[in-house]
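Quick note —
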Amino acid sequence: MNSSAAAEEVEQPELQENEIEDRPADLTEHLEELRTRIVRSLFAIFVGWVAGYVLFPAVYHLISLPLDEPLRRVHGTTVFLHFADPFFLRLKLSFVVGLIFASPYVTYQVWAFVAPGLTRSERRVVKMFIPFSGALFVMGVVLGYLFLPAGIRWFLSYLADYGDATLLQNPLSYVLLAVKILLAFGLSFQLPIVLIILAKLGLVSSRRLLTYWRHAVVIISVIAAIVTPTNDPLSMMVMALPMVFLYFLTIGVVKRMENNAAKRSKAEG
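Predicted structure written out below.
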């Protein structure tokens, strides 16, 4: 008995030591995988950056179209204010284009790293919402692009208050502002995804969303005021109104999800 107890006492520390040694190895493997996926993502962004640099003339023409017509109306023109601005404009816009090109691959790398830690139902939910999220982002960017000419005309309407003053517009500052506006519109259209995920987690319900719709409208207005780069009333309204519409549309989607879940629960019961 004494010899067997002593053997067990010797074996237990060895097992504990092995377990402790395994944990750093697992962590090291995760860190190695993370490093690999980060390197792959950065390489994809670099490749997209190079592609954006090559495609810069076409991309710049597309993003400058909303400015051309309003600028001609006031007899304005584009002027670079520094000799390095043309280069930095091409570099920065090419980088944004590279991020857009690389975003599907980077999203896959993030998903491949995170997915093993999720349950099957969680993976199914994420797979369902990723394409929907991308479509909403594109819809927001398109709406922002269509809004740009009206926003520019609204700002230029104040030029008449200054007599014979003309506008010398720096292309670099315009492009950076336009990109911020498009990004703000794209991100604002992610509201349904956030609400549906909260509903899936059981944190909100369709009844609660409908009860607090007035609070939601106020919060949406504040968000629109914060994320709109220009902070003008027209931009805020153009961003807030679609978000309010998406909010009420999401209530209907969540209500349908609740009804489907109730039917499944009743059938299983």
